[in-house]
Design goal:
single chain; 52 residues; alpha+beta; two-stranded antiparallel sheet; 1 helix; 12% strand; DNA/RNA_pol_sf
Amino acid sequence: MVGSITFNEMLTKLECIFGCCREYKLSLSPMKCHVFMTETIFIGAMVAPQGV
């Protein structure tokens, strides 16, 4: 899970993460990757900008 305040900050963080994955030859499953979500369920709890 990667959080950010601005869209540009999110893009910067994702570029770094994807770059590291490429460098270490790690693959990500598109079916399991969800980007630009404002809320999600993580370890059974709803995580949103307002908190858990």
